[in-house]
């Protein structure tokens, strides 16, 4: 026991992890043949689910996205356009967060129409990151396009993996499909920051509406009153899109050359 008490503990660094999913299989919760789909297939975010996905989709598109009613009822090309635009936004969002965290100019990341190319080696790049000046073309702010917690996830992985890893990611979307469309009226990230209590009321509203819509009216009035006090109304449309890609991805340990994630070659693989 005395030896154990006097022992010197040495910190062992775990292999760095890059927050990226690289798999030919779609998420189980998006596959109608899996139990996860029954449990979480209509998950919108947090613990909030939709019980009427088709009605939610049509109402959101008509009331909040200005899609004409005849297009909703008789045509579906609006969905194809939305999926294509979301696929492009997906690439721009990933490029934006990588640019911001790794201080790489956007034009070096986003190539052509919806094509992401990221090749990062800490041996070559850490010195540039330590410079006071930010290189031209680096995205300085991401709050308008990336959720703050997601950015912190990448920032944490980057800080932990400095001097340890090389990341290679070449992502080329090939198709996209809208899986769900929903709206949170009068709710946005800015609203939650300015009025933290509104999130609790909103969750209560959704829970009560599922059981007794009439009893939810006073909660709704309280939310509307807070929105009026702010002087402006912002809503959030949530669109879940399944993006299929041709992709090269790997993460290597610079000290050993071992592959920590992905496939150690330049072969494009079909992933979802």
Computed structural class: alpha+beta
Rg measurement, Å:
23 Å
Q: What is the CA-CA span between the terminal residues?
A: 53 Å
Identify the overall geometry. globular
Total number of helices: 10
Return residue spans where pLDDT drops below 50 for at least 5 consecutive residues: 1-16
What fraction of residues sit in β-strands? 15-25%
Helical proportion? 40-55%
Number of strands: 8
How can the largest sheet be summarized? 6 strands, antiparallel
Q: Could you give the order of the helices and strands?
A: HHEEHHHEEHHEHHHEEE
Mean pLDDT across residues = 79
Outline of the structure:
The chain is an alpha+beta fold. It contains 10 helices and 8 strands.
Give an overview of the whole structure.
- With 272 residues, the chain is an alpha+beta fold.
- It contains ten helices and eight strands.
- The strands form two sheets. Strands 3, 4, 5, 6, 7 and 8 form a six-stranded antiparallel sheet that branches.
- The longest helix is centred in the first third of the chain and has 26 residues, at 77-102.
- The radius of gyration is 23 Å and the shape is globular.
């Amino acid at each position: 026991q005395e030896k154990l008490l006097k022992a010197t503990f040495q910190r062992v660094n775990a292999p760095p992890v890059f927050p990226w999913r690289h798999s030919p299989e779609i998420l189980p919760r998006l596959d109608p043949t899996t139990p996860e789909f029954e449990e979480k297939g209509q998950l919108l975010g947090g613990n909030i689910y939709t019980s009427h996905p088709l009605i939610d989709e049509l109402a959101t598109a008509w009331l909040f996205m200005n899609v004409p009613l005849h297009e909703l009822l008789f045509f579906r090309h609006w969905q194809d356009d939305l999926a294509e635009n979301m696929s492009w936004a997906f690439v721009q969002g990933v490029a934006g967060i990588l640019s911001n965290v790794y201080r790489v100019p956007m034009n070096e990341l986003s190539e052509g129409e919806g094509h992401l190319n990221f090749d990062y080696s800490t041996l070559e790049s850490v010195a540039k990151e330590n410079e006071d000046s930010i290189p031209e073309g680096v995205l300085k702010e991401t709050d308008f396009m990336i959720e703050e917690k997601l950015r912190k996830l990448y920032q944490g992985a980057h800080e932990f993996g400095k001097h340890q890893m090389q990341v290679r990611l070449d992502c080329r979307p090939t198709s996209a499909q809208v899986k769900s469309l929903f709206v949170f009226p009068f709710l946005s990230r800015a609203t939650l920051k300015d009025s933290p209590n509104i999130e609790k009321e909103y969750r209560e509203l959704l829970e009560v509406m599922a059981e007794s819509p009439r009893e939810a009216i006073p909660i709704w009035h309280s939310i509307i009153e807070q929105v009026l006090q702010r002087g402006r109304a912002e809503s959030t449309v949530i669109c879940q899109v399944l993006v299929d890609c041709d992709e090269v991805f790997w993460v290597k340990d610079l000290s050993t050359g071992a592959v920590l994630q992905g496939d150690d070659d330049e072969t494009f693989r079909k992933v979802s």
